[in-house]
Specification:
mainly alpha; two-stranded antiparallel sheet; single chain
């Protein structure tokens, strides 16, 4: 199935929205989370999700949440 450029972008934006919602639900916020512009301009596959940069506190919070989930 070949997606149109609009469908590709919508799929990527929906993935970003779901990831933001899930991360926010566990107290983790990546301020620059978004769709990678370079891959979104391509025609092969779906665009990439850019997790962006985060500060040390955010990285440690994410590590703690993942650890808690892996070792309940």
């Amino acid at each position: 199935m070949v997606l149109s450029p609009q469908e590709r972008m919508q799929a990527a934006e929906e993935a970003v929205r779901q990831l933001k919602d899930s991360l926010t639900g566990v107290g983790v916020v990546f301020p620059s989370l978004g769709v990678d512009g370079v891959s979104a301009a391509g025609t092969y596959g779906l665009p990439l999700v850019d997790l962006g940069r985060c500060n040390l506190d955010t990285a440690l919070r994410l590590a703690a949440v993942l650890h808690e989930r892996a070792h309940p």
